[in-house]
Amino acid sequence: MHRRRFLQGAVASGGVSTMSWSGLFSVPAFAEQVKRSNKRCILLWCCGGPSQFETWDPKPGTSTGGPFGSIPTAIPGVHVSELMPKCASILDKMAVIRSMKTNQSEHTQAINLLNRGDNPRPPFTRPTLGSVLAQQLGQLDSAIPNFVLLDPCPEGNEFKGFKAGNWAGWLGAEYAPVRVGGEFKIEDATRIPGFSEADHEEREALRRFFSKKFENEQKSAAAASHNAVYERVKGLMSCAHLFDLERLPQKDRERYGAGAFGQHALLARSLVEEGAPFVMVANGMPWDTHVFNHEIYQMVVPDLDNIVYQLVNDLKDRGMAEDTLVVVMGEFGRTPWINVKRGRDHYPNAWSLAMAGCGIQPGAVVGATDALGVDVTESPFTEKNLFATIYQALGIDPYAEYELPNLPTFHRVEERADPIKEVLA
Predict the structure, then answer these.
(1) Axis-axis angle for helices 260-274, 293-317 (nearest 10)
(2) Do 219 and 257 share a domain, yes or no?
(3) Are 403 and 269 in the same domain?
(4) Residues 347 and 237 in one domain
(5) Cα Rg for the chain, rounded, in angstroms?
(6) Segment 133-156 mean pLDDT
(7) 253: containing domain
(8) Are 355 and 368 in contact (CB under 8 A)?
(9) Cα separation of 77 and 95, whole Å?
């Protein structure tokens, strides 16, 4: 039973006295844990770099704006692309940042930057956002994974820079993602036919004995991390059914759309409802429009528009919006100019993203770009500002120091970069 259901049951039954609660809250460590308990995050990752012009920061009627117009939103005076009518209707439940300014223009480097929150510092490997949130919001003894990556291309695609183990960096493999691909379910999560539960338990006990012996003899942090992953296999087997989309209502599956991105977003909603602290939903590379930008965006933007609309409304209707943060972003934006192949190229100089839910101020629209979208003219923000915002929204100290014996000092957010206060509730 995950924490939300435990707390709801305890309060409903009167199982926890006021006296015991007040005593526990006087303990700083417990108070800090409760502050972020039940907090969840869904990252909708638009892999390839979505165009700000056709989404959150349109420039209609200009030489860079493209053929699409803009439409008014639920926030007076704020417009988004005409390709996003559903998000326009709920923008007062969301926040938009129009002034992201980062420094990596190639996919692998930019994906690393926007997932880790800082530039590389070899030979050290900074953990990704998902791994940090898994450590801070999750529990190692939880059956459901603390970090789930839903990816229609589980072999890697442009996530090839995140090889096995690299996602969690120095936090250890126990905080790496469980990666699920296009079949919408975890494969090989049942016992071998004819292999009894007793046989399975005995074999696991033997593995545990030898693994622990090796760990103790070698005094190896890597071995300890490896063993922690194996300890979670039994829990993963017990919750594998949660990854089966066929168990969800057909009407919900139809609302989110038939594509992998929509189906995975629906699965993410279900997984956080079941207690998963962090789910990242990737959607291949349709946003990398070096050719035929306008034609492709007529397909992918309405799909994203519907997915975000359904997810934000579902979380609100289910009473989960206040403790579930939704982030919609990619690794950069697209160029203001159109290339000779009628596409937009990579552009980290001025781009947009959207957020909603936990800790976010509804209706906040922050930052601005110039008339042609070439550069940021108001409130430029970097990946460090973004990560500080995400951590603070989820009740996590952005500036805490990692406990890394015999290693240099690292913090969750370096240089004490400020969060984007305007989007924080």
Answers:
(1) 20
(2) no
(3) yes
(4) no
(5) 22
(6) 82
(7) 38-181+246-423
(8) no
(9) 14
pLDDT band at 425 (very low <50, low <70, confident <90, very high): very high
Q: How confident is the model over 220-255, as pLDDT tens digits?
A: 666 666 666 666 666 667 677 888 888 999 999 999
SS3 167: coil
Instruction: Tell me, yes or no, whether 123 and 221 share the same domain.
Output: no
Average pLDDT over residues 121-139: 94
Within a domain: residue 369? yes
Q: Which residue, 136, 168, 154, 193, is CA-closest to 282?
A: 154
Residue 286 lies in a domain: yes
Of 319 and 200, the one with more pLDDT: 319
Of 212, 243, 274, which residue is a domain's last?
Answer: 243
Distance CA 166, CA 19 (A): 45
Whether residue 303 is found in the same domain as residue 203: no
pLDDT of residue 172: 87
Q: Read off the pLDDT of each residue in 187-204 and give the average, rounded to a whole number.
A: 66
- Unique residue bearing structure tokens 């007529």: 298
Long-range (24+ apart) CB contacts under 8 A made by 284-287 are 284/47, 284/48, 284/152, 284/153, 284/157, 284/260, 285/47, 285/48, 285/157, 285/158, 286/48, 287/46, 287/47, 287/48, 287/49, 287/50, 287/51, 287/330
Pairwise CA distance, residues 35 & 395, whole Å: 6
Do 127 and 190 lie in one domain? The reply is no
Q: In the structure, what pLDDT confidence band is assigned to residue 153 with cuts at 50, 70 and 90? A: low
Domain stops at, among 243, 275, 292: 243
The answer to whether position 4 is within a domain reads no
The Cα 87–Cα 114 span in angstroms is 23
Please check the confidence at residue 352 and state whether its pLDDT lies above 90.
yes
Structural domain contains residue 90: yes
Residue 14 has pLDDT above 90, yes or no: no
